[in-house]
Automatic annotation (TrEMBL):
GO terms for cellular component: plasma membrane. InterPro entries: AAA+_ATPase (IPR003593), ABC_transporter-like_ATP-bd (IPR003439), ABC_transporter-like_CS (IPR017871), ABC_transpr_LolD-like (IPR015854), Cell_div_FtsE (IPR005286), P-loop_NTPase (IPR027417). It comes from Anaerocolumna aminovalerica. This is Cell division ATP-binding protein FtsE. The lineage of its organism: Bacteria, Bacillati, Bacillota, Clostridia, Lachnospirales. GO terms for biological process: cell division.
Length: 245
């Protein structure tokens, strides 16, 4: 009996989604409904693209996951936490547990590469001795071992995005959210960033990528959630960009 109990417990853990949207609607103060009754679940270790034309609600999804905004109705769970129950004092800590990268990189322009990444560790009070090991290790994974002392302005767009990825990943988050991570990059650098995201995903991080990049979505054959005017219109394993226009 004990044996079967353990198996079912294990299965239920495997099946717990890391992100769950439950009938989520978001209407902004202006009256625009950006999302209507959206439902989906993302499981541990998945790689998911979110696609859709401009204004279809993709960034709104990301902002909701980061609790930068709250839904008008419905519920959102991330790592089993109901985000509506997060107290104000818990929000900063919650966000630090989710890695995020944006189209615009958002690096500290007056700090070098090492400092940009080390900063993410200092705010969660990782001991200095540990930071000295962790930062070079992740910079090396990102192919930036020789760029520790460079300022962001001295790097190419692709390199800057790799610094942003290193910063998002140095604290070992269970989830990485990327909002148009290749929006400012040429095709070669875009592919490099996608290869890194795939590598990170293979190491166990759940990866969610919002993108307009049709070629990459079609090539990578991952799960694709397609939004249109705030409605989730398709959710396909090994999907393509087909419905997004
Ligand atoms: N802060 C806001 N206040 C009012 N309306 C907003 C706000 N943010 C977004 N919207 C509206 O909500 C809808 C969805 O916007 P959202 O930014 O989520 O779309 P998107 O799919 O990310 O678009 P894009 O691909 O252009 O970035 C749009 O109609 C937009 O104008």
């Amino acid at each position: 009996m004990a044996f079967s109990y353990n198996i079912s417990k294990h299965l239920s853990e495997l099946e717990t989604p890391v992100i769950r949207f439950d009938q989520v609607t978001k209407t902004y103060n202006t009256g625009t409904t950006a999302l209507s009754n959206v439902n989906f679940q993302i499981f541990k270790g998945e790689f998911v693209f979110i696609v859709g034309s401009s204004g279809s609600g993709k960034s709104t999804l990301i902002k909701l996951m980061l609790k930068e905004i709250s839904p008008t109705s419905g519920r959102i769970f991330v790592n089993r936490r109901d985000l509506s129950r997060l107290r104000r004092s818990q929000i900063a800590k919650y966000r630090r547990g989710v890695g995020v990268v944006f189209q615009s990189f958002r690096l500290l322009k007056d700090r070098n590469v090492y400092e940009n990444v080390a900063f993410a560790q200092r705010v969660i009070e990782i001991p200095a001795s540990q930071i000295k090991k962790n930062v070079p290790a992740i910079l090396s994974v990102m192919g930036l071992a020789d760029k520790h002392n460079s300022l962001p302005g001295e790097l190419s767009g692709g390199e800057q995005q790799r610094v942003a990825l290193a910063r998002a990943l140095v604290n070992n988050p269970a989830i990485l959210l990327a909002d148009e991570p290749t929006g400012n990059l040429d095709p070669k650098n875009s592919m490099e960033i996608m290869n890194l995201l795939e590598e990170i995903n293979k190491r166990g991080t759940t990866v969610v990528v919002v993108t307009h990049n049709k070629e990459i979505v079609d090539m990578m054959q991952k799960r694709v959630i397609t939004m249109n005017k705030g409605i989730l219109i398709s959710d396909e394993q090994k999907g393509g960009y087909t419905h997004a226009n």
